Each structure stands twice: as structure tokens, then as C-alpha cells.
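Sequence in, structure out. Go.
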Amino acid sequence: MVQDPAQQAPSVTPATPARTLVPTILPALAVGVLSSLVLVGVETAAGELQDVLWGPLPDALGIGRYSVAWMFVVLVATGLAVGLVVWKVPGHAGPDPATIGLEAPVLPPAVLPGLVLATALMLAGGPSLGPENPVIAVNVGLAVWLGGRLIPRAPGRVWPALAEAATIGALFGTPVAAALAISELLARQETRGMLWDNLFAPLTAAAAGSLTVALLDHPSFDLNLPSFGRPGWSDLLAAVVVAGVGALLALCAVRAFPYVHGAFRRLKHPMLMLPAGGVVLGALAAAGGHLTLFKGLDEIATLAHDPDGWSAGEFAVMTVVKLAALVVAASCGFRGGRIFPAVFVGTALGLCAHALVSGVHPSVGVSAGVLGVLLAITRQGWISLFVAAVLVAEPGVIALLCVASLPAWLLVTGRPQMQLREDGTSVR
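Output:
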């Protein structure tokens, strides 16, 4: 029996012709540059305000820069300022931040100024959140608004993808992070064409965003931890155990997230919820010290500079306090993302493991701790592996992390994420 040749031929994904991809280059470059400038602008403005709030101002008042009293004052004042923006500014600084992840909704242009202001105030004031979620939302809104007017024939769905990729590339200083994140997103969607055809325009935007930030800001995630040389079996065991502990610890925070969020929502008004969050964050800062404030990137560099400078108990306190501060800040209404504070949690956990067991190399402990915590909080496998690996400039750590990610993923998969639906229930 002779088969039809069409039935014998293997299934081949059709490729997108180059003439279709080339016109996307200029829009992608424009979105990449614009998105990176928005990120740099927000972080620069927040940094200038932070320098004033935590430097000349307390000095002029004769108060210790990181005294318990001043941390309470600034965190509560930040809650009042952000609450006022959410209450009075048009658009109310966007939707509930607990419901937003890296895949941002398309917000109307009128909402974006308030969201930018609330984000800058939060970054300067010290709550434990990063800029990623709100800045992505701002860039998506700008890209859709401007793109729809300048190139009305372009598919509307292309602008959010370009803005998200560009912002992620700018945040992490490399388009590789954006390619990994977009690949995970494409895996959950029905797409046409080959993977690299779908990645072409977002990767172009991410490259433009990361290069722009590199020229303006010179970001680096390498913590300059001690080299551990060739990995051994003890390193593999340490990576698996620390990543698993990090995942379980972060899952406890994820489990508590909807309950903490519900408690703040009972206050019903942003001028109550956000200052109340500031009070709780002030108490946590008093317990954990000033290193548990802010998004955490500068603070992990301080920890990594002297990995033996704190005891295991001190590292443990910072780990728990920072994780609690992340839950509170994300629950009470501060506009911010959860990735960068989670990196601090994983770093402190890894250094705690090193302080407890000297055989756990600090580079292995930090990278594995960050991997486990990020897997539980973000449920983004590639991003978690990428961030954990770039903190340690050791090629050998990648193999350890790939193995450690497998049991850690079994712990987190199918469980709630640190993101809520509009009705307050957890996303799985």
C-alpha cells in the first residue's frame, strides 16, 4: 500500500521570511531605548531622593541615618506619600500591585504618571520592593499608546512584548534575561513560526534596552564572591539542600501572602493601608537592621563583600525579616516588584548556610539560595537560573544550579504563586 507523500513528510514549522522581520527592527530599537530611559530616569530620581532622605536630612536634624526612630519616620512618611498618590492622582497609580507580575496589563496613559511617582517614592523610602513590575507596566502603556499612533497598522499585541523584553533587558543589563523570560511566555501561548522568528523583535528591543543602560549606568550583578574552583560532590549536595530550603522558606511566604493582603485590604483606604504597612516595615527594619531596607541589590553587595562578617544567627534574622518585609510591602499597596528583594533573601540564606557549615562555599550557597527563593516566588525557571548564575562569575556553578533546580522545582510546581487574582485568591 502506497502512502500519500503529504502524509509521509515530517511536520515542519514554517519559517518567517526575512522581509517580514526586517521592518520590526526600527520599532523594536525605539521601544528598547525608550524603555531603558524610563527605567534609568525612575531609578535616578529615586536615588537622588533616597540620598537626601537617608543622608543630609537626618544629619541636619541630628538623628542617626539608620536609627530605629528615623527608619520608622521615613517608612511611615513613604506610606503616607504613596497613599496620597494612590488616593488623589488620576488613575490611582494603577491596579492592585499584588495582582501584577512581569506580564503587565496595558494601562491608559493617564494612569502612568501616578504609577511613576508612586514607584519613585517607594524606591527612595525603603520598602522592600524592586522597580521591575511597575516600570514594565509603564513601558507597556507607553509603547502601546505611542506605537498605536505612529504605526497604526502594526498588530497591537507586538508592543507589550517589545516593552516587556526591553525593560527586562535593561533591568538585568543583558538581552539574555529577556530572551529567557519571553521564551517561557511563548511556551504558554499559541504561536506561529519558529521560536527565533518570534524572539527576533523582542530580542532586538532587549538588546537596545540593555546597551542603553550599559552606556548610561554600567550595571553589574557579579558579587565578586570567592572562587570555589572545580565543583565537587559536596558542592552539589550543598546546592541541592540550600536551594530546597530556599524554596520551602519562600513557599511559606507565598502561603501567607493572601492572608496578609486580606488583612491590609480590610482597612479599605490607601491612606490607612500604606501608612499601616510603613509601621510594620519600620518594626521589621528595627529587627533586621538597615540592610533589610530598599530593593536589595546594593545591600547584597555589602553582604558579599564580607561573607564572614556576620554570624549565622544574624544572617538568619536578615533572611526572615527581608522575606516578611517583601510580603508586607507587596500586600499593603506599595508599587513594586518582587524579584530583587527575593535575591537579597536568597543571598542572606546562602551566607547563613556558609556560616553554619563551613564546607558550604559562599558562592555555592548564595547562588543556590537565590535559585530556590526565586523559583518559589516567581515560578520563572529560566529567570531564576539566570539571576542565580550571574551573581557568581563561575562557569562551574551553572551545572550545580541546573541539578539543584530539579528537586526545587518539584517542591514549587503546582503550588500558589506570589501573585493574586482580583478576588484575592492565589494564582497557581
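Check: The CA atoms of residues 46 and 120 lie 5 Å apart. The first helix runs from residue 5 to 8.
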